[in-house]
Amino acid sequence: MDLSALAREAGLTVSVIQDAGRTQIAPGSRTVVGIGPGPIDVIDQVTGHLKLY
């Protein structure tokens, strides 16, 4: 299951952004997922394993 589906299952607001293909990224490629707002503990359940860059 992907991250956006896990967030939706947890009841969080989710927005997936697909690239328009105007640069080197192929059109339709999913490049960003926005999760929240929501309770910190719920967001951490979904995203806590991700590295911060």
From TrEMBL:
<dbReference type="InterPro" id="IPR002833">
    <property type="entry name" value="PTH2"/>
</dbReference>
<dbReference type="Pfam" id="PF01981">
    <property type="entry name" value="PTH2"/>
</dbReference>
<keyword id="KW-0378">Hydrolase</keyword>
<dbReference type="InterPro" id="IPR023476">
    <property type="entry name" value="Pep_tRNA_hydro_II_dom_sf"/>
</dbReference>
<protein>
    <recommendedName>
        <fullName>peptidyl-tRNA hydrolase</fullName>
        <ecNumber>3.1.1.29</ecNumber>
    </recommendedName>
</protein>
<dbReference type="GO" id="GO:0004045">
    <property type="term" value="F:peptidyl-tRNA hydrolase activity"/>
</dbReference>
<dbReference type="GO" id="GO:0005829">
    <property type="term" value="C:cytosol"/>
</dbReference>
<comment type="similarity">
    <text>Belongs to the PTH2 family.</text>
</comment>
